[in-house]
Amino acid sequence: MREVLVVENLKKTFTLSKKQQKLEKTTVSKKVAANNVSFSAYEGEIFGLLGPNGAGKTTILRMLATLIKPDSGNAYIDGSSITNHARQVRSKISFMTSELKLEGFFTPNYLFDFFGELHGVKPEVIKKRKQHLFNKFGIDKFAEVKVENLSTGMKQKVSLVISIVHNPEFIIFDEPTNGLDVLTAKVVTDFLLELKKEGKTIILSTHIFSLVEKLCDRVAIIINGNIVECDKISEVTKNKSLEEEFFNIYEKVTGENIWVTF
Questions:
Q1: What are the distances in angstroms from CA 121 to CA 107, 111, 158, 166, 234?
Q2: 3-class SS at 228?
Q3: What residues of the chain score a pLDDT lower than 50?
Q4: Partners of 12 in beta bridges
Q5: Which CATH number characterizes residue 71's domain?
Q6: Which residues make Cβ contacts (< 8 Å) with residue 81, sequence separation at least 6?
Q7: Are 92 and 65 in contact (CB under 8 A)?
């Protein structure tokens, strides 16, 4: 398989405010969100970042999507550096997170056309992709409804199709099923598997064990900004459930009793 993502020693540190220090019950003013993180992903693979909230998953994905710059290290998406060739990287990827909201005043129809033009997609291609994706996700019936009047699930579907308007080969999803009802979550996960069959490379972050087991070819377990395990699911679990092995790893790495921590 062709290696299409290479992550080399990415590091990102944030300064904590007094309020943040209080919330995290620490007196330390600096937090290392990603600590010399390295991994790779292959063409046609779904690669998962698994860890608890605050582990550094979102920070890593934001660096890969060029939304924030690493303090040090680099990553290459199909040969393009996230630090030196950010524009080229953005043209190759789709990035979606529940924290990025669509402007509520506009309709799915308008937004799809707008972002298609922004990506330089030809009008006839935009029209064809919109018809296909809107029909597939049931958005066609709501194409002229303002986003602010759509349900949470429909907003997520609209965000999803807009994020892939330019038919990218590399897809980055931060918590793809977060806050979704079971029906919408299934639509999203089934679609990710379809994209994999098309040869797309997908990087996703999650704290949901079953999602990783269902979707991912390989997984990196991240704890406190460090990748502590990275391999095929079968190699990580060693004939155990992913949940059981994760907590075994967590206790070994942190020395904390999970029944007290969680």
A1: 19, 13, 18, 6, 40
A2: strand
A3: 260-262
A4: 34
A5: 3.40.50.300
A6: 74, 75, 89
A7: no
What would the two tokens of residue 202 be? 């997908």
| Burial readout 214-225 (b: 16 or more C-beta within 10 A, e: otherwise) | ebbbbbbbbbbb
pLDDT tens, position by position, 87-132: 999 999 999 886 667 888 999 999 999 999 999 999 999 999 999 9
Q: How far apart, in whole angstroms, are the C-alpha atoms of residue 64 and residue 172?
A: 8
Which residues, 6 or more positions from 191, have their beta carbon under 8 angstroms from its beta carbon?
A: 136, 137, 160
The H or E element spanning position 160 is helix 152-163
Q: Which residues pair with 39 in a beta bridge?
A: 7
Angle between helix 123-137 and helix 182-197 axes, rounded to 10 deg? 130
The DSSP element (H or E) to which 130 belongs, if any, is helix 123-137
Q: pLDDT tens across 194-218, in order? A: 999 999 999 999 999 999 999 999 9
What is the number of domains present in the chain? 1
Query: Domain limits at 20?
Result: 3-99+168-261
For 258, the token pair is 């999970």
Tell me how many degrees the CA angle 200-203-205 measures, rounded to the nearest 5: 150
Taking the C-alpha atoms of residue 214 and residue 50, their distance in angstroms, rounded to an integer, is: 13
Residue 119 belongs to some domain of the structure: no
C-alpha to C-alpha distances, 27 to 16, 19, 20, 242, 261, nearest whole angstrom:
9, 11, 10, 34, 19
111: in domain:
no
Instruction: Match 């709501």 to its residue by tokens.
Output: 142
